[in-house]
Design a protein that fits this description.
eight-stranded mixed sheet; 17 helices; 2 domains; alpha/beta; Alkaline Phosphatase, subunit A; about 35% helix
Length: about 525
């Protein structure tokens, strides 16, 4: 009989029992006596190797904030390292700190010219308009009003594919009617959020819902005499199958639509070959505002337009990719009379929203983080993923002072090193390749007690791929002679950003006390 891989076997058993990666209940490796192995204890060191960060703040704060009061915790000191800066207020060392200010973004230019602006979004996607669109800065700008509509509090978003889109449209219509707003930016979350759910009927309902609410926004803008620009941050449901027919619930590398709606601009020609970094210069062009030198993108408007300062309504249909093929295209399969008509009758083009166009490795898919950064920034930003992967390639990863501080500290103090993060080949939150690099560094540094705690989430992964990646890490630990995969959980419970503290408490109890289904050590 071959070697057993206990955590991978446990994940496969969970699949057979009807669980999925996203909401998988916690599981913990135990010894022969049933005692949980590798729990986080006083004096331990943790490297949270996830990227992005907005969903990692809550769990990190539960270990590092001395004033944390959302649920009871152990009285202990845990030394934390985060891969990137999740929040400047966290008590954690940062392996890849920000390279500097991101410079003027679209919202900054609007504010600098004394214009008011409104942002309208439901809470599930609020961080993308309030943080990423502003260049990774959560502070509201002068004259910036935020209207955040609560998302449904449910475990399965597929049961409510409409989400809070109608409430977002209600707030948007009210903002558009206010002549004091020079720019109104709206995000409809449905296509992206529901696109991650393995439920085609729910996805088509979500797409139809967004289409309907865009129609309401366009009509409100017509009444107010405002110009509407419609686009998306990345693709998703327009390519719902892999070539072999397996379901793909992740993001895509498809382009996204860009449509202008204004009777005054009906004859305007839009250029092809654009990218998300061209959205901000186009909006500024429409508003009659200068484009900052830092914005290397250019306006999409090819021919001259009547010179006047317009009020602009920028609609971001989150996850709405553009793809001509109908096979596996759930956007094409949905009822979308509004977008169909607008793309046929109004100036329209397509924008690159993935790969190098948004600062990601060539051929990779887009995501909401880089999508909104590039929509707001008007130029390309090198992604944190590229920074990490380039450092692994050139060797500087293995000289990173934050990583070495944690590993040498655990070795010196005789405590444990914990590697915590997403278990995925290609998630926007991280990669198992980054985890493997940390395991190699721990081996080279002679760290004895190394424990891996993984989060699963099938977004852009093949069915039941989580077990494959878990087994891959278990095999890597065996090959290196370093590390033990001791616990697994669905990312739903750990990567929250809406203060669902019951989920974070569940993850804390999993990590500290081993609360979860026991998995016998091989």
């Amino acid at each position: 009989m071959g070697k057993r891989w206990p955590m991978a076997d446990a994940v496969r058993a969970a699949y057979r029992a009807g669980e999925d990666d996203e909401t998988m209940e916690p599981m913990v490796l135990v010894d022969a006596g049933g005692k949980p192995l590798g729990r986080i204890q006083d004096g331990d060191y943790v490297i949270f190797y996830d990227l992005r960060g907005e969903r990692e703040i809550e769990l990190t704060s539960s270990f590092t904030d001395p004033r944390f009061d959302k649920f009871p915790r152990e009285a202990m000191r845990v030394h934390f390292v985060t891969m990137i800066e999740y929040d400047p207020g966290l008590d954690a060392r940062v392996a890849y700190p920000p390279t500097g200010p991101m410079g003027e973004m679209l919202p900054h230019v609007v504010a600098d010219h004394g214009l008011r602006q409104a942002k309208v979004v439901e809470s599930e996607k609020s961080v993308h308009l309030t943080y990423y669109l502003n260049g990774k800065n959560d502070e509201a700008l002068p004259g910036e009003d935020r209207f955040i509509v609560p998302s449904p509090h449910v475990e399965d978003y597929g049961s409510v594919p409409e989400l809070s889109a109608a409430g977002v449209a209600d707030a948007a219509v009210e903002a558009i009617a206010n002549p004091g707003y020079g720019l109104v930016t709206i995000n409809f979350a449905n296509t992206d959020v529901i696109g991650h759910v393995e439920n085609p009927e729910a996805i088509k309902t979500a797409v139809h819902t967004v289409d309907t609410q865009i129609g309401r926004v366009v009509e409100a803008a017509r009444r107010a005499g405002a110009t509407v620009a419609i686009t998306a941050d990345h693709g998703s449901a327009e390519r719902w199958y892999y070539p072999d027919g397996a379901i793909d619930t992740g993001h895509t590398n498809s382009p996204v639509p860009f449509v202008l709606v204004d009777s005054d601009l009906s004859g305007v020609q839009l250029r092809s070959g654009g990218a998300l970094s061209d959205v901000a210069p186009t909006v500024l062009h429409l508003m009659g505002l200068p484009t900052p030198e830092a914005m290397t993108g250019t306006t999409l408007i090819r021919d001259g337009i009547p010179a006047r300062k317009r009020r602009v309504v920028l609609v971001i249909a989150d996850g709405w990719g553009a793809r001509d093929e109908e096979l596996g295209n759930l956007i094409a399969a949905a009822e979308t009379p509004v977008m169909d008509r607008l793309q046929a009758e109004r100036p329209a083009t397509r924008l690159q929203a993935a790969g190098t166009a948004v600062g990601m490795p060539e051929g990779t898919v887009g995501n909401s983080e880089v999508g909104h950064l590039h929509i707001g920034g008007g130029r390309r930003f090198l992604s944190d993923r590229v920074r990490v992967e380039e450092s692994i390639a050139d060797g500087s990863f293995f000289e990173n002072q934050a990583f070495l501080w944690a590993m040498r500290g655990a070795k010196r103090d005789g405590t444990r090193l914990h590697l915590l993060g997403i278990i995925s080949f290609y998630s926007s939150h991280g990669s198992v390749e980054h985890l493997k690099a940390l395991m190699r560094l721990a081996r080279d540094e002679g760290v004895r007690q190394v424990y891996v705690h993984g989060m699963l989430g099938r977004r852009g992964e093949r069915p039941e791929s989580g077990a494959i990646y878990v087994e891959d890490i278990e095999k890597e630990a065996s090959k290196l002679g370093v590390g033990q995969f001791v616990s697994i959980i669905g990312r739903f419970w750990s990567l929250d950003r809406e203060e669902n503290w019951d989920r974070i408490e569940k993850s804390y109890q999993w990590l500290v006390h081993g609360r979860g289904t026991p998995v016998r050590q091989a």
